[in-house]
Amino acid sequence: MNIFLLHWAGFIFLVGLLLSLPLGAVYYLHHSELKQFFTNPKKLKSAHLDFIMQAFSIGLVFLLELGTNHQLPVFAVIPLAFGTFCNPFIFLLEATPLYKMGFVKILYQILKSLSPLALFFAWFVLAFTFLPTYILWLLLGFILLLAIAFLTYNKQHKKIVSNTKKINSGGK
């Protein structure tokens, strides 16, 4: 899989670079036809950056395979390739009005649910294939700390909202 990952990273990176052309035309040249097509320039910028970031993440997987002399299983490479293209492609669709109509709307809804799931699965397999146990424990600890922080924030946020409602309603 080494050479496929390298080729795929190159392809994804080039797509990200190609998106810099309409991005520049929309942001700096204020090209009217492109502005009509790319109605959300922030999403276009997100797609551009995400394609480049996904290429670097695949490059990291390539380096892990090369450095450990251990290949990622095909059942993880396929969702990784799918997700690393489709995740930024979702941003690209959202940059245009196309994702709101017809067949593209259905495709958009399917990609929006399958792509993150495929990437999560691939990175999960990757973590358990390449990472040593102590790093997995550190990752689990980080996830638990993040969950605790989130739950604490939600609890405090609900108290603040309920107190604000009481004050606004005159203490009733």
List the helices and strands and how they pair.
Elements: H1 2-18, H2 20-27, H3 32-37, H4 41-68, H5 74-94, H6 102-130, H7 133-168
Helix pairs in contact: 1-4, 2-4, 4-5, 5-6
User: What's the number of helices?
Assistant: 7
Strand content: under 5%
Could you state the order of secondary-structure elements as H and E? Answer: HHHHHHH
What's the N-to-C terminus distance? 66 Å
Q: Which residues form runs of ≥5 with pLDDT under 50?
A: none
The dominant shape is flat
The computed structural class is mainly alpha
Radius of gyration: 21 Å
Task: Report helical residue fraction.
Answer: over 70%
The description of the largest β-sheet is: none
Overview of the structural elements:
The chain is built from seven helices and no strands. The protein is mainly alpha-helical. The protein is flat, with a radius of gyration of 21 Å. The model has no long low-confidence stretch (mean pLDDT 89).
Offer a concise description of the structure.
The chain is mainly alpha-helical and 172 residues long.
